[in-house]
Amino acid sequence: MGKPFITKRILFQFIILLLVPLSVMSQYTDVINSNRPGLSVSAYAVGKNVVQVEMGLFYEQSDHTLLNTQSDLWGTNFSLRYGLFFERLELNYEGTFQDQDIIYDFFDLKAKRRDFSRNRLGLKYLLYDPYKNPERNKPNLYSWRANHKFQLKNLLPAVSLYAGANFVLEDNPYYPGEPTVSPRVMLATQSRMTPRMVMITNTAYDRIGTDDPELSYLISISHAFRNPKWSAFLEHQGIQSDRYSDLLLRGGVAYLLNERMQVDLGLGASFKNTPSRVFVSAGGSYRFDFHKDTLVPIDDQKANENGGAIKKNSMKKEQRKNRKTKGRGAEDIDLGPSKKQLRKLKKAQKQGNSNDSEIDF
Q1: What pLDDT, on the 0 to 100 scale, is given for residue 361?
Q2: In Å, what is the CA distance from 35 to each residue of 32, 79, 202, 306, 322?
Q3: φ, ψ at 290 (rounded to 5°)
Q4: 116: which strand partners?
Q5: Where do runs of H (alpha helix) occur along 65-174?
Q6: C-alpha angle with apex 252: 249 to 255, nearest 5 degrees?
Q7: Please, are residues 97 and 75 in contact by the beta-carbon 8 Å criterion?
Q8: Which domains does the chain possess?
């Protein structure tokens, strides 16, 4: 059999060429929406014409009690996300390239493995967005607590479908004998439990058609702190396959440097000792925004009452004013007036002012 047209070296050089220019550029909301530092995938796309790069370095120490092996592993994982054609669709390339040293204590031998443990390309489409309905997001003007407490309706998630393929090039020691291309499908959901807390779930069927197909799930909960630049997450992953099965737990924090850049730190471990795994990661996300707003008038009737349509600049200013902090992968929601604004509203009502629109927030 002849050499494959695309070798690992060519592919790796191509990826580096992509990452170098993007790392100094690179979703869509006002604030970057990154999947890092966990592995769970948000139900929402980055936004039309937005390019986003998410990458980091990791170290893992692994011991296998039955095989009596010790392993040190260094690597890099990266994701390139692009909002394709329209807001609901995202093209996503994900890769993990790692270098592993293994010591076999029984035989006093050392071995090395180096290749892609993850190399896939796919499309994600948002099937359902519960926050598309403006009535659902209408804030309570009389209760700060009602706008911030957990409500059962918040469990209704956004849902997206992912379809893609894994690529195994040359003789990959992590996937010996696997075909060059194998399909992958995934269902991703996202629920905003409270204004500060988001839950994401991923259910995936991977390497379809190979000798060792893989079924996995991810449950991730993210929380944004009072300082909107800081957020934390906790993530659980289950993997079931004849090749490898495990239960993993991850946690970490992220810090927002600005609207376009986020840095993160994560760590995790497995629940078993065949092998036991402990890992730490650090990285960042950056977006380059080619997105153009398509602003729709709020309401023709309100526009007429106010003496005409609201100008684009005024609309954008008001949108930014109403946006509050988000958890990792969260979407913007109007949280309603603050406690101070509510007190002002009630005071005005007591003074006999029943027209809410005259109260200056």
Answers
A1: 45
A2: 10, 9, 12, 41, 24
A3: -100, 10
A4: 97
A5: 144-148
A6: 160
A7: yes
A8: 8-129+159-296 (2.40.160.40)
How many Cβ atoms from other residues are within 10 Å of residue 16's Cβ?
Answer: 10
Q: CA dihedral in degrees (211, 160, 11, 267; nearest 10)?
A: -80
Q: What is the residue type of 279? A: F
With bands split at pLDDT 50, 70 and 90, how would you rate the model's confidence at 235? very high
DSSP per position, 156-209: S-EEEEEEEEEE--SS-TTSTT--SEEEEEEEEEEEEEETTEEEEEEEEEESTT
Distance of CA 298 to the CA centre of its chain: 30
Question: Can you point out the beta strands (E) in the chain?
Answer: 50-64, 69-83, 89-104, 109-128, 158-167, 181-194, 197-206, 214-224, 230-240, 246-256, 261-270, 276-289
The 10 Å Cβ neighbour count of residue 93 is 16
Q: How far apart are CA 303 and CA 315, in angstroms?
A: 12
Report pLDDT digits (tens) over 172-221.
Answer: 999 998 999 999 999 999 998 888 899 999 999 999 999 999 999 999 99
Q: What is the pTM of this model?
A: 0.72
Chain segment 237-267, per-residue pLDDT in tens: 999 999 999 999 999 999 999 999 999 999 9
Structure tokens at 275: 């092998």
